[in-house]
Specification:
Blueprint (H helix, E strand, L loop, with lengths): L1 E5 H6 L1 H9 L3 E6 L2 E6 L29 H7 L5
Parallel strand pairs: 1-2
Antiparallel strand pairs: 2-3
Length: 80
């Protein structure tokens, strides 16, 4: 459930509102009774990526770099 606060209150108590948002609460900031913004916590960034996670799980075919003749000819602008 979210709580609505006015702009003045948000400016005055921003630090406390940030703490509440970080704890999972949703704060709606309103101007003249109209909601204009939502203050929510950002998700945690993913951990650092470690290379080599797919090592040994994926292989390339022996002929991976070989093109069929008609495709190679098309790259040279020739018609098959």
């Amino acid at each position: 459930m979210s709580e609505s606060v006015n702009v003045y209150e948000a400016k005055t108590h921003l630090s406390q509102l940030l703490d509440r948002a970080a704890a999972g609460e949703e704060i709606v900031i309103a101007r003249a009774g109209r909601p204009i913004a939502r203050l929510v916590a950002l998700p945690e960034p993913p951990g650092r990526r470690e290379p080599g996670g797919w090592r040994g799980k994926v292989t390339a075919a022996a002929d991976f770099d070989e093109l069929p003749g008609e495709i190679e000819a098309a790259f040279r602008g020739e018609r098959a």
